[in-house]
Design brief:
37% helix, Ribosomal Protein S5, domain 2, 628 residues, Hsp90_N, five-stranded mixed β-sheet, alpha+beta, Heat_shock_protein_90_CS, Rossmann fold, 4 domains, elongated, nine-stranded mixed β-sheet, Heat Shock Protein 90, HATPase_C_sf, chaperone, single chain
């Protein structure tokens, strides 16, 4: 038996490992299963090139739980280690790395996103164990070795009687970590971190139903056999070639990833690139609707099928963080930190590649089946609009597939829309005016007025549409967007012809004074406009600029231009050519005049969805009284 001291100058390194290197103790199992997987796959490679003269077979990794003995076993059938290799890899290499790490990061070691670079994965075992044993038999014709360490720099290394190839790690679980001896906890960790590891992982056994014999009697009872409980899928869908998969394969994998999700994904994007970096994965577009916050941390990052994190910020472009799926890249270290991601050039390339791949997929979906793409538009528009705002490379490509739906169910690209409205919606200054509504029902009367004139009205109702509009106006000369209720229609798209007012200047002044004495001035600005006599007598509008700034402020933190708490202000546009305007002007009885104005104002508010609560109750009561 050999005894010795681990070559390290720090007197007791294990408390430091426990304190600094891992903020999350549970990843010890990920690290140890990853090591077992590496040992198995290395053996596979050596046998394939003839360097290991052994049968590879069908190796598995087994996790055994000995709750009574307070021990956890991780057993593999990989290439194993000789005593000399244990001496080298466990006692020297890892600890020289440990020294270097602790020296470099002794003041800020909690930000330990580079642990993997120092070969310290094995020592994560000491976060949960007070003693660790390694029993290993190499594929080489050498005796097995048994290494033991109790968490101090002292270790023992002696021969062992193990005859089967591979390594067994035995963790003697410390009293403060007994939760890791619970079956449900182990299963939870294996499912979280090792669900798609490339080597089968056994944890216990399960009962599996035997096929029913063809000649089984009517009272046949299903028979069961005990089989290994393999908790992982070693060949997940993203590792296969897209040409070998169909729609059902992708949907089945989505259900495997999200067993509690009842929605089918709209479509998927298979990532598969091996130059200039290695990246595979599948991204799914779920049904998002208008909720920009519904998704976060639904894309999992893997490294060679080992789970790393659900925080893929920096790797996946921000606008695609609302998607679901998997990204796998061996070019990203297992213990990834945010600062590493921000600094790494490969990561930026990966992000750019994903943006390009998503753009190309959307373009092909649009081109190949436009009708289907239009039907899915409302469920994906928020992601695409956010992409236009946040990713210049995506914005460049978006023009060929981003859609602008109308209130009557047509869909245009921006170029198609410009062509469709240029003859009718160009104003007297040569500006193309795009009319839109944000609420088809709430702004119905305004939409009705605009469509009666032959105008197209878009339905733009996502929460970030004001930002999108602002960007489109900035990038398209002589193009402006106006919501249909921002002014009366003849002002929104001003033509050369003007309506002649039936009222004289003096009458208009008198009417305006009367109205301003009745209409609440803290909310409404009264404007008299000469319109067609058949147009609505009272119209409430909200200035486009003010409303848009408030909306943009609401979706960008609420503080922009100090408009978050700005009171709602509206214009009350009164048609001076309407019969009602003439009636109000000629009514001498102030109380009757006031009733007329209030009723007309309430009707205008009703059409804008602004009549609520006490005011609505009073309006309904007045209406019933007139029916008596």
């Amino acid at each position: 038996m050999t005894t010795g001291k681990i070559n390290v100058s720090v007197e007791n390194i294990f408390p430091l490992i426990k304190k600094f290197l891992y903020s999350d103790h549970e990843i010890f199992l990920r690290e140890l299963v990853s090591n077992a997987t590496d040992a198995t796959l290395k053996l596979k490679h050596l046998t394939s090139i003839g360097e290991a003269k052994v049968e590879y077979g069908n190796p598995i990794i087994e996790i055994k739980n000995d709750k009574e003995g307070k021990k956890l076993h991780i057993i593999d059938q990989g290439l194993g280690m000789t005593a000399d290799e244990i001496e080298k890899y466990i006692n020297q290499v890892a600890f020289s790395g440990a020294e270097e790490f602790l020296e470099k990061y002794k003041d800020s070691a909690k930000d330990s996103g580079i642990i993997g670079h120092f070969g310290l994965g094995f020592y994560s075992a000491f976060m949960v164990a007070h003693k660790v044993e390694i029993i290993s038999k190499s594929f080489k014709d050498e005796p097995a070795a048994h290494w033991t360490c109790d968490g101090s720099p002292e270790f023992t290394l002696e021969p062992h009687s193990k005859t089967e190839r591979g390594t067994e790690i035995i963790l003697h679980i410390a009293d403060d970590s007994l939760e890791f001896l619970e079956d449900f906890k182990i299963r939870e960790l294996l499912t979280k971190y090792n669900k798609f590891m490339p080597v089968p992982i056994k944890f216990g056994t399960k009962q599996e139903a035997l096929p029913k014999p063809e000649d089984a009697p009517e009272d046949y009872k299903t028979e069961y056999k005990e089989v290994d409980n393999i908790i992982n899928n070693p060949n997940p869908t993203w590792t296969k070639q897209p040409a070998d998969l169909n729609d059902e394969d992708y949907k089945n994998f989505y259900r495997e990833l999200y067993p509690m999700s009842f929605d089918e994904p709209l479509f998927n994007i298979h990532l598969n690139v091996d130059y200039p970096f290695n990246l595979t994965g599948i991204l799914y577009f779920p049904k998002l609707g208008d909720n920009i916050q519904i998704q976060k941390d639904k894309i999992s990052l893997y490294q060679n099928q080992v789970y790393v994190t659900d925080n893929v910020e920096g790797i996946v472009p921000e606008f695609l963080m609302m998607l679901k799926g998997v990204v796998d890249s061996p070019d990203i270290p297992l213990n990834v930190s945010r600062s590493y991601l921000q600094a790494d050039g490969n990561v930026k390339k990966i992000s750019n590649y994903i943006t390009r791949k998503v753009s190309d997929k959307l373009k092909s979906l649009f081109t190949e089946n436009r009708v289907d793409f239009e039907q899915k538009w409302n469920d994906i528009k928020v992601v695409l609009e956010y992409g236009m705002l946040s990713e210049p490379k995506f914005y460049e490509k978006a023009g060929s597939f981003v859609l602008y739906p109308t209130t009557d169910g047509k869909y245009f690209t921006l170029e198609e829309l410009k062509e469709a409205i240029k003859d009718t919606q160009t104003d007297k200054n040569g500006k193309l005016v795009v009319l839109y509504a944000s609420n088809k029902e709430g702004q119905h009367s305004y939409i009705d007025i605009a469509t009666a004139k032959g105008y197209q009205v878009l339905l733009l109702d996502s929460p970030i549409v004001s930002h999108v509009i602002q960007k489109l106006e900035a990038d398209n000369e002589n193009l402006t967007f106006s919501r249909v209720d921002a002014d009366h229609i003849d002002k929104l798209i001003a033509k050369e012809e003007t309506q002649i007012s039936k009222l004289s200047d003096e009458e208009k002044e008198k009417l305006k004074n009367s109205l301003e004495g009745i209409v609440p001035k803290e909310t409404y600005t009264v404007q008299l406009e000469a319109m067609e006599s058949s147009a609505a007598p009272f119209i409430i509008t909200q200035p486009e600029f003010m409303r848009r700034m408030k909306e943009m402020s609401a979706t960008s933190g609420g503080g922009m231009f100090g408009m978050g708490n700005f009171p709602e202000m509206y214009n009350l546009v009164v048609n001076s050519n309407s019969d009602l305007a003439s009636t109000i002007l000629k009514t001498e009885d102030k109380s009757i005049q006031e009733d007329l104005v209030k009723q007309a104002l309430d009707l205008a508010k009703l059409s804008q969805g602004l009549l609520r609560g006490e005011e609505l109750t009073a309006f309904v009561k007045r209406g019933f009284e007139t029916l008596k």
